From TrEMBL:
InterPro entries xrefs: Class_I_gatase-like, PdxT/SNO
Primary gene name: pdxT
E.C. no: 4.3.3.6, 3.5.1.2
Known pathway: Cofactor biosynthesis; pyridoxal 5'-phosphate biosynthesis
PANTHER family for the chain: PYRIDOXAL 5'-PHOSPHATE SYNTHASE SUBUNIT SNO, PYRIDOXAL 5'-PHOSPHATE SYNTHASE SUBUNIT SNO1-RELATED
Protein name: Pyridoxal 5'-phosphate synthase subunit PdxT
Length: 197
């Protein structure tokens, strides 16, 4: 499996490790490539859109011609995992004129809904499709305000959606790559396969 991590800005190494761990649980290997230029995404089986600064990520993926390739990737049914700022960039409505959203997830997003950096927190969050709660790390986390009719809500905190699935895209307000638990990456990329014991 070839996994592309959108690496224009954000936590790239952690996502690379997590997708390798998820693949290994299915007795597969993942070749991870960092995407900073156009021409790489079309060769990828899966994509990861990491956290970081959503305005910077949005500006750079459009400037470098990567945005259209991500849209084509999703249109072809290939999976994407978008986390934190990645959720904002992939949304329909980022509620911020500085972000040119990709419209891959039919949600509107409230940036920094859970507060600033000092308000970061961790919580055990029940996630649809997982047997046990996921230890979620929220850092300047967004929340989802509105969910479109075709979007499945996978997890909520205080009644607000923090993880959703829209077709081949799984998007979270938290940072699953900052834990040793690969189950969110597993949910995004291997949703119908049993983990190899």
């Amino acid at each position: 499996m070839k996994a592309g991590v959108i690496a224009v800005q954000g936590d790239v190494a952690e996502h690379a490790a997590a997708v390798r761990n998820a693949a290994a649980a299915h007795d597969e290997s993942a070749e991870v490539v960092e995407v900073r230029d156009a021409g790489i995404v079309p060769d990828c089986d899966v994509l990861l859109m990491p956290g970081g600064e959503s305005t910077t990520i949005s500006r750079l993926i459009h400037r470098e011609g990567i945005a259209a390739e991500i849209e084509a990737h999703v249109a072809s049914g290939k999976p994407v995992l978008a986390t934190c700022a990645g959720l904002i960039v992939c949304s329909n409505d980022a509620k911020d004129d500085r972000v040119d959203p990709l419209g891959l997830v039919d949600v509107s997003v409230d940036r920094n809904a859970f507060g600033r950096q000092k308000d970061s927190f961790e919580a055990k969050v029940p996630v649809a499709g997982l047997d046990d709660p996921f230890h979620a790390v929220f850092i300047r986390a967004p929340a989802i305000d509105e969910v479109g009719p075709g979007v499945e809500t996978l997890a909520t905190v205080d009644g607000r959606p923090v993880a959703v699935r829209d077709g081949p895209v799984v998007a979270t307000a938290f940072h699953p790559e900052l834990t040793d638990d690969p189950r969110i990456h597993d949910l995004a990329f291997f949703p119908e396969r049993e983990v190899v014991a």
